[in-house]
Design a protein that fits this description.
Shape: globular
Structural class: alpha+beta
Largest sheet: 6 strands, mixed
Number of strands: 19
Number of helices: 12
Strand content: 15-25%
Helix content: 25-40%
Number of domains: 3
Amino acid sequence: MGISINLFEFVNYSWATSEELKSIDDKLLFSDDLEKALDKIWEERKKFAVSENLYYQSNSKKQRFIEFKKNEIIPRNFIGTIQIRSNGQEYAINILPKVFHKKNHYYTTKETDSIFAHILWWLSGSQKQNYFTMESSLGALESNFLEILVYMFSNYTLDIYSSSSYNYYNTVNEELETVKGQIDFNKYVNNYAVGNRQKLSCVYDSLQYDNQFNRIVKYVCILLKDFTKNIDSKRNLEDILFILDEVDNIAVTAEDCDKVVLNSIYSEYRIILDNCKMFLTSLSIYKWKDDYSVFALLIPGEKLFENFIFTTFKRNILEPIKNVSKTRPGRNYLVKKTPSEVPNKFKLINDFIIELLDNTHIIFDTKYKKLISKDGEEDDSFDADYNVSQTDIYQMVSYAVASGISNIALIYPVLPFEKQTKELSIYEIEDSFTNGTIIRVHLFIVDIIHEDVLDLNINEKLENIFESSNQRLINQLNQAVNKINSI
C-alpha cells in the first residue's frame, strides 16, 4: 500500500515541520527527483493537453505545478494527483482545492473523501465530463483521487463493453473477384487496361471493430493499468483489454477524441469517450530511472471552476435568459496597431456571455479566489473591502469597451469556513466617450460546496448526493441574472 499525502493549492509546506510531509524519509532526494520529473512533464505537456488550454501554453521552461523552495514546497493552481514510485516506495500526492483548506486542521479519511466527491461533482457538471450515471464508491479507495477516477472509469467502461461492443461502419475500397457494394469503374478501367480484368474495384461499408474509438479506449486502459494499485480497477482494465484484444494498440492524444463522431443514440459511449479525453488531457507520465516514475493527473483549478459554472448555466437556462455561450458581440482584440484597419493586438478572452430575451447581454467572468478581504487591509491596488484589484476592473472595462456590453458579473466561490458578512457592492464606471454610459461590474458569490461540506454520505450516486446543492447553485446563478436585469 502506498502513502497518501494531502496538500492544498497555494499553501506553504515545510519539509522540516509540516505533518503532511513527515512520512517521506529522504526529503532532499525526494524533492530533487520530484522537481526534475515535473520539469520534464511540463516540457512535454503538449503531448497530453489540448492546444486551446491556456494553462499549458506558457513559454516558461520551468514547471508550474509545484513551487520548490529551499525549505518548503507550495502547490500551485492544479488540482489532482501526482503518483510517484521512488526507491521502492509509492506515494500519491493529492493536491486539493484551496476552498476546503482550514489552517492547522487534520483531515480524516471521510473528510478527504468528501473533498474528492466535490471534485467529481464539479467534473460531472463541466462540459464534456459525465459521471452522473456512475456509483461513487469512494470509501473503499484509500483516499487517492486518481484511484477513484480510474475505478469509476474502469467499472463503467467494463459494464458497457460487457453488454455491447462498439462497431463502426467504415468505407472500404478493395479489389475483389466478386462484386460487393458498388464498383469503382474508374479503377476497374485501369485494371482492365493492364490485363487484370478479373479484379473488381469495389466500394462498400464494412463494420469495423478495430476503429478509432476502441483504439482510444484501449490506449487509455493500458496507461491506467500500469499505475493503478486498486485490485478491482486493475481487474476491470484487464478485462476491458481482453475484450479489445483484436484492436490495434496505437498511441493517441486528446485531439484524437475530437475526431471520433458518435451517433447521439450512443450516449453511454459518449461518456466513455469524454472521460478518455479527460485522462488524455490531464495525464502526464514520466520515467527516468529504473526505480523512479511519475504519473500525474492535474487539472487547473480556475479552469475547472469556470467550466463548472458555465455548464451549469448552459444546461439550466431559465427566463429571462435566451442563450449562454463563449462568444460575444464586438471585436475580439482590444486595439489595432496602425496601419492595420482592424483590431489585431491584445486578444480579449472572456469566460462566457448571457444573452437575454430582449437581446441585451451580460458578460460573466469567474474568479476562483476569495472575494472578501480582511478589514483594514491597506493596499491601493485592491479594494479595502473586497479582493478585487485594479487589474480586475481594468480587464472588465476593456471587455465592456470592446463589446459594447455595459453589465459585467464577477462570480466567486463561497468559502465554507468563512462567514459572509458584508453586502456585495456594484462598481460603476462612467464612460465619458459615450455620453455618460455607465459600466457596471457586479459581484456575486455562489455555492459550489455541499451544505454538509466535509461530512458527506458518499455511498450514493453523485447526482443524489449533490441534487439539492446543484439546484441551489442553479437558483443563485439565475438570481444573479435577474438582479442585474432589474437595475
